[in-house]
Amino acid sequence: MAFAPPKNGEGAKLQTKMSTWTPLNHPLMNDKVFEERRALLGKWVRDPPHRSYT
């Protein structure tokens, strides 16, 4: 019984370094992830620190 990694039909695997999910070798994807993170961080920073959860 051989244990081989599953074959990827897309060709080369997206390279990641120092991160488990940020693609470094795909500029369009990298820019998209950056903008999404920036928007999320902006929302988080602007939220009031103390919300009433009732």
UniProtKB/TrEMBL annotation:
Protein name as it appears in the record = Uncharacterized protein
Top-level lineage group: Eukaryota
What species was this sequence derived from?
Answer: Engystomops pustulosus (Tungara frog)
